[in-house]
Amino acid sequence: MGKLMAKLQSQYVCQSCGYISPRWIGKCPNCNQWNTFIEEAPKPVKASRKSAVPTRFEPVSFGQIEAQQVPRVKVGLDEFDRVLGGGIVPGSLILLGGDPGIGKSTLMLQVAVLLANSSILYVTGEESVQQLKLRAERLHAENAKNILLLAETNLDIILDILERTPPDILVIDSIQTMYRPGLESAPGSVSQVRESTALLLRFAKTKQVPVFLIGHVTKEGVIAGPRIIEHMVDTVLQFEGEAHYSYRILRALKNRFGSTNEIGIFEMRETGLHEVKNPSEIFLSERHYGTSGSTVVASIEGTRPILVEVQALVTPTSYGLPQRNSTGYDFRRLSLLLAVLEKRVGMNLGQYDVFVNIAGGLKIIEPAVDLGVAVSIASSLRDVPVDSTSVAVGELGLSGEIRTISHIEKRIQEAAKLGFKKIVVPQNNMRGLKQNGDIEIVPVERIERAIEILLE
Length: 456
Ligand code: TYD
Ligand code: MG
Known about the structure:
Rossmann fold; Ribosomal Protein S5, domain 2; 3 domains; 11 helices; 25% helix; globular; binds magnesium ion
């Protein structure tokens, strides 16, 4: 009996993924994080709150369901609406994750201000209402009448208010600060976050009110806490950016109501977040002409082409092992490119440090920028600038061949639109492509040839 009681009383829960262990362990066998286990009381079998099971629902066949377009509330902030899939869906539960200080609260406040015809309840568990007012003043939004603020973290109180006066849209800032007094574990722990989300989910679905949950990312790339509710919410948005740049990128990591490819780009200024509608122009605006190691590539983010500058710096190694460093571009892919350049082009990079950087703080995962990275490295090594009126796109294969990429027309169009005169593309992409008057399309098969064409 005593044993059984002890079992019921405590368990250890990984705060990163929610894995449960009967005893404390250092490394989580599920998500491999270290030191993430915290003792928590198991969830009481009987929840104190009266269960509100709706009885009006019955099973239906497809035939009985009337097809209807999902009605959406457009915020009027295009970069935000597009990432959501065209606006806010009623009754949807949306998680907005990101590093502390990246601008999540600012974004949600701006969204709230734009929805002037809807009543918004902004629940803050992180800041006082005075702090919120200061932020609103920066955004020139302190007179927004549609927003009600509530500094509260006790979810029972919040649910009570929601019951009495449900808003049109609810913002919870942040889900990690919310707690139910009935549960023994601390706010931010797995059981509190899960329970709070479950209750807010029920509110969203029964009242058809969209709910935004703000969640902090605490470790490198891991939404700890919020990560364990990703499967419960309809949409997971991530707000990201580099500390030293003012650009912020909004991505959908999951979206039951839209694609996950779109990104929204914002710039954080003194007066809040501003939409970046012409990203190529911005990302190229600081380009230096005539210096070696810089190539313009046409990348596709979601459905949008974006031109960015890939920079490389190759310098003789002065002590010890040669350094390799990459910002915004996959490090392993860089090692691979260096090997290809050594073996297939005969470049001797063994005695050189190599640094690669995607300008503007963007992160690019697609391999279509390989060619640009390789050409920048060659340009820096030889100290010969790349033709500044050219753009390069193509994936690099292990034998030095340039491989086919997707969305070639869009990339070419964007390059032409921004006044570039030439674009180097993979030979195999030429099928069905026509030369147009604005930009010369130069097909290449191998990396050596691309370097020859692009270095002045
Ligand atoms: P905030 O929205 O509080 O971030 P989060 O909620 O993700 O923690 O934004 C914090 C940062 O944004 C802070 O460093 C100040 C900066 N900021 C601006 O640069 N301009 C502005 O107009 C506002 C409101 C904030
Ligand atoms: Mg905040």
